[in-house]
Amino acid sequence: MSTIDKIAQRTRRTTFLAAKNLYWHIRPGNTDRKRKLHLFVAGVQRSGTNMLMDILEKSWVIDAYHERDERAFDNYKMRELPVIKTLAEKSPMPLFVIKALFELQDLPSLMQQFSPAKTIWIVRDYNDTVNSTIRSFKHDVVGLLTGVVLDSSPEWLGRGLSEKTLATIKGFVDPQMTDEDAAAIQWYMRNILFFEMNFDQNENVLAVSYEQLVTEPEHIIDGICNFIDIPYESRLSKGIFSSSVGKTRKPEISPAIEKLCAGLKAMSLT
Asked: Which residues, listed in sequence order, are joined to residue 121 by a DSSP beta bridge?
């Protein structure tokens, strides 16, 4: 995409958001805020949550708060609950949508405190997630993992970590492990929370496959709209491409860790 195209895209987005915000602020008989739906967009980092937020933001009835929005986030982490509740209460739109990545383990509590609330958990194949993680993050992937697992570091990655999961992964974690193996273990640690929190049995939680979303956008987005009870608009599906699937070579993940991730993937989060 050229620089001019990027500028035009940003201008269209800014104009649309301004028009949407103005409409809901001046609309007579504004929405009943007591019935506002709160939606959390969740998943492992580099799984397509930004794309999903961009899709949802195109709806006229959704007020979306990205992790780059300093009103709701501080260094990509959600601000204190009173701050988020104030933003939700002041929002004039029927649906308040916010990302929850560092806060995955807190989702059951968040959904209870922001009731009525739902969660969409997006899942991306671990191979592409591993490649994207290593390419995008500048921090020490191995250091973060070993600190949490071996040194009981209080970092976000270890929050919500069950004794069962810790026992499962501890034998794989070593300061000399590769970045690929460390990123794969991170993918496993955060996605296993989906099952440990019984989200596979929760009617207010929808798992969405990244691969299906980019290859069947109309079908999957229509299902998302049904889940959050809003009308499907064709504009939501525009600009979605599947070129990111398998774009780079398969990462070199140790066979035992590959088996662990493949087993979780086979549990059909979607």
From this structure: 42, 207
Summarised one tens digit per residue, pLDDT across range 115-151 is 999 999 999 999 999 999 998 876 689 999 999 999 9
Tokens 């088996």, located at residue: 259
CB 185 within 8 A of CB 129: no
Is the four-CA dihedral 162, 108, 139, 240 of positive or negative sign?
positive
Q: Is the pTM of the predicted complex or chain greater than 0.70?
A: yes
Q: What's the pLDDT score for residue 33?
A: 47
Distance CA(256)–CA(170), nearest Å, equals 13
CB proximity list for 120: less than 8 A, separation 6 or greater: 39, 40, 41, 42, 52, 205, 206, 207, 208, 224, 227, 228
Pairing of strands 205-209, 117-123: parallel
Q: Largest Cα–Cα distance of the chain, in whole Å?
A: 62
Q: Which among 228, 225, 193, 212 has a CA at the least distance from the CA of 100?
A: 193
Instruction: Give yes or no for a contact between 179 and 134, defined as CB atoms under 8 angstroms apart.
Output: yes
CA 116/CA 139 separation, integer angstroms: 37
- Which residues, at least 6 apart from 173, have a Cβ–Cβ distance to it below 8 Å? 145, 146, 149, 150, 182, 185
